[in-house]
């Protein structure tokens, strides 16, 4: 997307990035259909995240602070998150979205360092090394693992739901990263959007996953049993085995809330870009309208609960998978067209 926009001079639209492959057809109905699918994928992906996240957040508040676990509270949480994300989206990338993102990073880093320092630090460092080794060694075979699995199993859920969920996030994430990548090289973007976040994710999973595994194996907390019902409650129970429990739990709730808010405000901004013809600065009324799309999560939550949210993510992601494959081909063609041409001796001497 960034290469298409800033090197080729196209708009910030996924349909425009497909021009090297589809040609002028992206200016007609084909391009419109692609952009509609982009909007649906972003909307359903964020709605699914907010809906499932609201469920986890409500369970955390109920477990830690005796807040009722009910649909009324869930709707209140969604309304509160939507209000903050709307204010953030209206102020733009350089102000509200940036400020909340920095706050989210600071609180998340504080929680990570706290658990690393107070938990089984030696075991966590070992887990980090083993995890990286296994990730690198199994990346290709696990990425291509599509073997069938019986319904109602973890393998079945992982292969279909989580892959679909992440695919549903791709149009929002790639447009957002493209939007903030002006003036950077492809190498910079790969380092900043792939390499560094991956290393941070390794550390995050090693610290929190490693602490949970240690507590499970030692019999201190039945993590698997608790997580089977509500994952966030299992997180709280693990944190309660550490010193300074109050601080750790107090950090957890705002971290969870900010994760959802920063996703929703960025998504509404990108939806505004897509539905305003690829404008870098979508009109505020359009951003406001898409900010309220978060309420869609409440409708799904009330109508069908968790199963409805999961089905919606899969439905939105399936058609966009073909677009992702097309984008890979279009990028290769675009880079080939943009390659440096070899000049002759006369041109070089000039």
Automatic annotation (TrEMBL):
Subcellular location: Cell membrane
Coiled coil: none
Bilayer topology annotation: Multi-pass membrane protein
Superkingdom to which the source organism belongs: Bacteria
Residues annotated as transmembrane: 33-52, 72-93, 158-177, 189-208, 242-261, 288-306, 312-336
A Pfam family recorded for this sequence: BCCT
Keywords from the named record: Cell membrane, Membrane, Transmembrane, Transmembrane helix, Transport
Family in the record: Belongs to the BCCT transporter (TC 2.A.15) family.
PANTHER family on file: HIGH-AFFINITY CHOLINE TRANSPORT PROTEIN (PTHR30047:SF7), HIGH-AFFINITY CHOLINE TRANSPORT PROTEIN-RELATED (PTHR30047)
Name under which the protein is recorded: BCCT family transporter
Organism: Saccharopolyspora halophila
